[in-house]
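Consider a typical record:
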Amino acid sequence: MRLQTAAPLTLFALLMAGCSVGPRYTRPALTTPSTFVSGAMVEARSPNMPSADLVDWWRSFDDPLLTSLVERALAENLDLQQAIARVSQARAALKGANAALLPSGQLSGQAGEAYQSLETPIGRIGSAFPQFERSTDLFQLDLGASWELDLFGGRDAARDAARAEWQASAAGAVAARLAVAAQVADTYIQLRTLQARFEIAKAQTETQQQLRDLVALQFSKGVAAELQLRQAEGALAQMRSALPALQNQIDMAMFALDVLIGTQPGTMRPELAAGSAIPAPPAISTAGGPVELLRRRPDIIAAERKLAATNAQIGVTMSEYYPKFSLTGLLGTATTSAGSLFSGNATQASGFLGLRWRLFDFGRVDAEIKAARGRSAEALAAYRQVVLRASQDVENAFSTLVQQEARALVLKQGEESLLRAQQASLAAYKGGAVSLIEVLDADRRLLETRDSAIEARAAASRGAVASFRALGGGWSPSAMPAVGQGS
């Protein structure tokens, strides 16, 4: 096609470039309650304490080692690095989708020499063409350009889908960041809990050893029966058996923390071996209500962006109803002599308007559109499910925090009473007023209550960690790319 003929068609294509297909996307509204069920109780926990900052909530536990571990994990965790790499991949895909909207060009050239055969299937060339030159030189230099015109918005919709996927991957990386920070804090609290339980079991073992020695002395003097001695030895063995099991769990918690911060298992053992108190849960604010708090959750952002991407993909498939036009042009030189490569006689040019239309394939296009609409409906249901589960996460975490703190308070009071009962039973046993069974039972009850009290305190602290994670704490929303951003 001559370039003069292609010019009007090009102008028509540029005028039509604003057309687009596919449904217009509208972000779904968040359907959340006005308040959290346990929100008032969470606010009433610590009315005189300042609320923790959601951006770096781990600092509010006032544990320098915990803060150090979380920040090291955010810098070195390998799962987080994989999520960041996926963001780079999605950003590259967006750049590719943007580039597809623009013309592409290429520069090509060649220089060569050909030596022809005189023997061909149609006869000897030498006899038919006496002046035939077997040796031929060829020099060629071309500048080509091509452009697929986006008349009906298919490539523009693909660009919108790629942008939404990139934003979803960025939100996914933030969600991974929150998960890593929460997992480090949760594992650290579990470690401190196990170490506290180990110390209680160790102290109780020493108490049981003293009781066994007392009974053995009485047995040697004929005051105590052999049954009492064997009962004391059995109780001591049972208590001793708890120590290796607790130590095993302590080791695994330490190794888990090592992996979370991207180091070999055992690296942090010297720092973690020294016991420390279980971090106390800080004050948590629910100001802003469920809508504002849940809007910052990265998993909700990611789900909404994936929904936007599937909506844009409907437009991509609908554009297949319409013809595709492309412009191709070439300007260059070709000659058999290097010296005349840039002469006027060597100049060559061409221009083409291409057409591709799935004219008799609309049944398959219909199926593709239905599939795209189905994926969009699935993404919408997934988005709504994420919002519901986010609300559930907050309610579960708030309930755990409040109720476990109440449980820890009750168990603390019971521990004080059982400690006095244990001391009284031992004194009564020495005076012959009660049997050894009463002493062992008092010891068992005291140990169980102490153990439960530690677990309740730990569960409350872990509930605070879960609350911060459920509220989307651990990042600044300004770090997320804007909905319209991306190039």
